[in-house]
Amino acid sequence: MAVKVPKYVIPGQPIVPILSTSSTPSTPSTSSTSSTSSTTKIQYEPGKNCRIDTVKHKGTNIPCIVSSVLGRVTISKVDLSSSSSSSSSAAAAAATSENNGKDKYNDVSMGDTGNPGGENVDVDVYQVTVVSKNDPSFNVVENVENVENVDVPEPTKFSMSTPSEHDIVLARVTKITTSRIHVEILIIESHSSSGSTGSTGTVGGSTAADDDGKIQTRKLMTNLIPAESGETFRGIIRSQDIRSTNRDTVQTWNCFQPGDIIKAEVISLGDGVNYYLSTAKDELGVIMARSAVGGVGVGGGASGGSQGGELMCAVDWEHMVGLNSGVIEPRKCAKPL
Amino acid sequence: MNVIDRRRNLGPADAQPLVFAAPTKQQTQSKNNKTSKEEPTSKKVFIETGTIKTSNGSAYLEHDKTIIMCSIYGPRPNFTRSFNDQATMKIGVSFANFIPVENLSIKSTNSINNVNNNGEAGATTSAESQSLEVSRNELEQLIQQFCFTNYQNLILLQNYPKSSLEIMIQVVSLNSQHSFIQLLSDILNCVNVALVDSGLQCKSMASCGYFKSSQSKEQSSKGDVELLVNMASDQNEILGVYCDLNDYDEQFKKGFEQCVENAKEFKTELAAYFLGCIAGSNQ
């Protein structure tokens, strides 16, 4: 019996049982392809805004994926065979190759005691996520012919999430000391747990599509700045987390300056006040900075800090140059694009 | 003795009193019919979401001249020295200054009646229970405590570490005929709607049912019975119960079942409204 998945859900509404023996999952979203045979088991995992809860139905308790927010259900196939690769490539691979996401699972490990003898059972793993109605990606058009014409919505909504581990964030440097960099977190760039490869998109967001023209991955920015208070989440980059080589000889003032906009990864929730961030990857570091000297107008001197100078661009991994004056300042630059 | 009416209290001596025409029979009937239409047994509830743009979620509820606004802010950074693995929730309740709260009396038999009562006033409806007049601050504290215990278990606070959530409740207008429990049920429903609008992760969409024995035309010897039940999900999970009963007898059971039915009915209406809204906005 095919499992019917609701397209829109309210908080607490069951979406789908975690295990299903149906031949084809009836997904409301177009982000997955049905590639199951009659003998394939389907396992659903809770993604963002979902959780597992027990629902009582006709006297029996059934573990189900339950929504936590009001929004739209999307189901995407999890490619376990290439888990080390990026999420975007995994999604594209799952979309282009039909049998790519099918893995051999031991039935004992899946908790299925009805099939003794250790016989392998084909299991497809799908991830169920709910896109909240406040999420900027909620209004993204699903079926598009030309990906280049897709309008990526602006991050106008305030965030309903907090930074978590492996999130890529944009932050502003507020203070530097010899041992650490203090920043304030402005934006979560991507909420996926893609790790180092999740930050390959541009700042403004990007989309990718498979052969059918369906959007597979989206990189959207989530604003973390509260509306009224103006207080932001704070973070710390320790000197040993600035770069991955020569950690002991890092000079913090040669890597960042107050006012720089940086891209960093959350490595820990930290203490009560600060998140712990890291820029020890090629694509992490300063993405926008102003020079301390050579600026026009306010703060042009050395005492004015980097907020009043002219805009600089990266010339190599460790230097940025002013666009007009040609002044060169040291920074830990992020890999552009 | 001078008997002249110098102050003109009596009016002119030849004045004639005004005589209005007696209403005809047809006019009297139409007036009665109009009254019966204007005052149905159950008043309609008007709800609007997203009224406060600067908040993460907000709701406006209007029920029989009682107006309540709720706004939700967060998750915001919570700067405490100790590490909080879950969000801290703050609830603020405020009555508008011009609202008379003297009619809102709570009974001393309530289970959560732990506020400092200044004195006793008003007529008691039963021998055991006594109406206690409380101040504005005490009422706000009482609502705040009850809401906190309700929503502490509903919102998934563990998904928002190192942050704080704020729920602000404003009673803009109050129908003088409404009791405290009826006002509390409206407040809970307003917060329930605002929570769904905010997008905060919750276990379920809650709804509150209200019951009053006089509404169902059942007069008991012990007087009116009021009860509210805040439901969390279809699995009959109860977040909070507030009643003014002494004896948990058959009347309590009947009122409880009626509250549950009202809550389920209200939740069905809300679910249809929200699903219709997001389906329309996503097309």
TrEMBL record, chain A:
Coiled-coil residues: none
PANTHER family for the chain: 3'-5' EXORIBONUCLEASE CSL4-RELATED, EXOSOME COMPLEX COMPONENT CSL4
Biased composition range(s): Low complexity: 20-40, 81-95
Keyword field contains Isomerase: no
Molecular function in Gene Ontology: RNA binding
InterPro entries, alphabetized: Csl4, EXOSC1_C, NA-bd_OB-fold
Superkingdom to which the source organism belongs: Eukaryota
Cytoplasm listed as a keyword: yes
Keywords: Cytoplasm, Exosome
Any GO BP annotation: RNA processing
Protein name: Unnamed protein product
Cellular component, GO annotation: cytoplasm; nuclear exosome (RNase complex); nucleolus
Annotated spans, Disordered: 16-42, 80-121
Subcellular compartments: Nucleus, Nucleolus
UniProt-listed Pfam families: EXOSC1 (PF10447)
Ranges where the Exosome complex component CSL4 C-terminal domain occurs: 163-269
Automatic annotation (TrEMBL), chain B:
GO cellular component terms listed in the entry, alphabetical order: cytoplasmic exosome (RNase complex); nuclear exosome (RNase complex); nucleolus
Compositionally biased spans, kind Basic and acidic residues: 35-44
GO molecular function terms attached to this record: RNA binding
Annotated ranges, domain Exoribonuclease phosphorolytic: 43-200
Family: Belongs to the RNase PH family.
Localization, UniProt: Cytoplasm; Nucleus
Key word RNA-binding present: yes
Database matches in InterPro entries: ExoRNase_PH_dom1 (IPR001247), PNPase/RNase_PH_dom_sf (IPR027408), Ribosomal_Su5_D2-typ_SF (IPR020568), RNase_PH (IPR050080)
One GO BP annotation of this record: nuclear mRNA surveillance
Name of the protein this chain belongs to: Unnamed protein product
Swiss-Prot/TrEMBL keywords: Cytoplasm, Exosome, Nucleus, RNA-binding, rRNA processing
Pfam families the record matches: RNase_PH
Polar residues bias locations: 24-33
